[in-house]
Amino acid sequence: MTTDLFLQLNNFYQDNAAAIDQERWDDWMETFTDDCIYRIQSRENFDRNLPMAALSMEGMGMLKDRIYGITETIFHDPYHQTHVVSAPRVISIEGEVIHAEANYAVFRTKNDGIAQIFNVGRYIDQIQTSDTGFKLKSRICVFDNDMILNSLIYPI
Amino acid sequence: MDKDQIIPTHQVWDQLDTSRIPFWAYTDPGIYKRELEKLFYTNHWCYVGLEAEIPEIGDFKRTVIGERSVIMVRSSNDEIQVIENVCAHRGMQFCRKNHGNTDNFTCPYHQWYYDLEGNLLGVPFKRGVKQDGEWKGGMSKNFDTAEHSLTKLRVARRGGVVFATFDQGMESFEDYIGSDMLHYFDRMFNGRKLTLLGYNKQRIPGNWKLMMENIKDPYHPGLLHTWFVTFGLWRADNRSELKMDQHYRHAAMISTRGSAGKDKQTTNVSSFKEHMELNDPRFLDVEVEPWWNGPTAVMMTLFPSVILQQQVNSVSTRHIQPNGHGSFDFVWTHFGYEDDTPEMTQRRLRQANLFGPAGFVSADDGEVIEFSQQGFEQKPFHRALAELGGHEIGNTDHMVSETLIRGMYDYWRKMMEI
């Protein structure tokens, strides 16, 4: 992998996280392919090969429905997220698909509160490359928390 | 003079009936300690898991009853034991894994080891050490390993679900849940083997009873959960019934999905979204299953420890694990049935997006419980109100009632002697 390609990949990770933190949901969805997989799954389920996940989205339609849910229908305490995402670890490149992982920590801050460590884990990704840039073909957020701190509303 | 006569240790129910619930029922640490004793450690069968979680001999799962750590283990062909995770020697919680497979339990501290039934098999240096031809130290001569088993719980199994109790005098599981509730229990667990799909776990900063009440409250789903009302899954005008056992401790909310969308009953509900349509209808790709025998949703509360969920094709158990008066862990175990097609498994997994800590119609339950607890804590002298459907307690053929909550507190007061 060339340095240029790696820097481009690193930027892609940071842009994706910034879109979430700044609640630019259309920009976040833009980082996925139309037939994407997006899953937030506990390490316990992942390690034991159990298919259940806290969220399991297939395709852009489901992502749109989720964004509609978090902005219009689900009642929840307002909160902000800040992601700290490591540099990606490239596992392999198969044709136009990069297999990569990155560790993340997500801090949650509520009104009248202070930042809490909300969710910690790693992204396991397949990234579709093309002339126009990168898109996530598959992202599995495997989180370490045994317990989710009450509810998980926004994407990770 | 008895200490009880100087300092009142018993709260007094200073309300007319159970249509008013004092906030201290949720905020008093002493009340909570008594709940653990009277509701979790005696007089009740508590949920521990599914047989499908421990299919092989030696498979175990660590879980809790109330705050007491226990291990559910498959000990030999078709035998399931539940033993307390406290070593008979120094009291250490020796089992640290969530699950696993083993042929014995050994406490790492001094390597006392137990068989899968919880019997003490041996202790190191039982006879002491031999020095200069003489035995020195060791356990007393009359120390008998047979007297130092792990605490063994009574176990009840039905339809692949495992319950246990510390209470050796407990009535049978069937008597405990009663014939009306047994009907709905057997509907969901009708003898087919279950398949484990996985877990969702959340820590909710609220009193554990609020989760029981949430599933005894058919008032909120059509109001709080926009999804339910918009897609007709749970609406005030659905055909529905509320049923209880004879003690009012357990309950079932039974409902049949009506037509989705706009009509007179929904347009005056502010959470109804007239133009809401799914981009991906697979979230609600419902297939009617023969075992339903009609109802599209049956939500059961088996007091005090578990909720049994059927919401269309999504089936799960939800285990209440209290940890203090103001917090509990809520563990969802999603499952399917052995004869499910791959398509049905996929359908159950997709519909699971509605439930759990991130679910379209469940994330907000955790939130309202947290903020209810905050309200209770700020004015513990006040009370909550549960008067929908009047003051009486009884089964209904509609959903516009809080009778199940009144029933639960009627039972709670008897058990707690309050």
Please give a handful of descriptors for the protein shown.
A: 156 residues; Nuclear Transport Factor 2, Chain: A; 45% strand; B: Naphthalene 1,2-dioxygenase Alpha Subunit, Chain A, domain 1; 7-stranded antiparallel β-sheet; 4-stranded antiparallel β-sheet; 23% helix; globular
Q: Can you put this structure into words, describing what you see?
A:
The complex is a heterodimer of chains A (156) and B (418). By secondary structure, chain A is an alpha+beta fold. Chain A has one domain (3-143): Nuclear Transport Factor 2, Chain: A (Roll). Chain A has 4 helices and 8 strands; from the N terminus they run H-H-E-H-E-H-E-E-E-E-E-E. Chain A is globular. In chain A, 34% of the residues are buried. Chain B has a 7-stranded antiparallel β-sheet with strand order 14-20-19-18-17-16-15, sandwiched between helices. Chain B has a 4-stranded antiparallel β-sheet with strand order 5-4-3-6, with no helix packed on it. Chain B is globular and about 90 Å long. Chain B folds into 2 domains: 46-155, Rieske [2Fe-2S] iron-sulphur domain (Rieske Iron-sulfur Protein); 178-416, Naphthalene 1,2-dioxygenase Alpha Subunit, Chain A, domain 1, CATH 3.90.380.10. Chain B is built from 11 helices and 21 strands. The model of chain B has no long low-confidence stretch (mean pLDDT 93). In chain B, a hairpin with a 5-residue loop joins strand 19 (314-322) and strand 20. Helices cover 23% and strands 27% of the residues of chain B. Strand 8 of chain A pairs parallel with strand 14 (194-204) of chain B.
Question: What's the short version?
Answer:
The complex is a heterodimer of chains A (156) and B (418). Chain A is of the alpha+beta class and 156 residues long.
